[in-house]
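Subject: design request, 69 residues
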């Protein structure tokens, strides 16, 4: 979030950018089927670096959803 600045000099389109990012992520979730990679277990444990990150990064297999009409 640092590129957006803070205080008086904050980006004037910050709210609009956040709205578009939320819309983009929602469309990714809606348009694609997200499955874990075969053989990988989902492990949500964390480790502390500069911020908290996943100990084992999440890997996903992404397939387009098929609309059944």
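Subject: RE: design request

Done. Sequence follows.
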């Amino acid at each position: 979030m640092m590129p957006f600045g803070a205080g008086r000099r904050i980006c004037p389109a910050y709210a609009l950018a956040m709205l578009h990012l939320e819309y983009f992520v929602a469309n990714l979730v809606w348009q694609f089927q997200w499955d874990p990679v075969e053989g990988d277990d989902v492990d949500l444990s964390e480790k502390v670096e500069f911020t908290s990150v996943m100990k084992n990064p999440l890997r996903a297999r992404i397939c387009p959803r098929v609309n059944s009409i």
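The longest strand covers residues 32-36.
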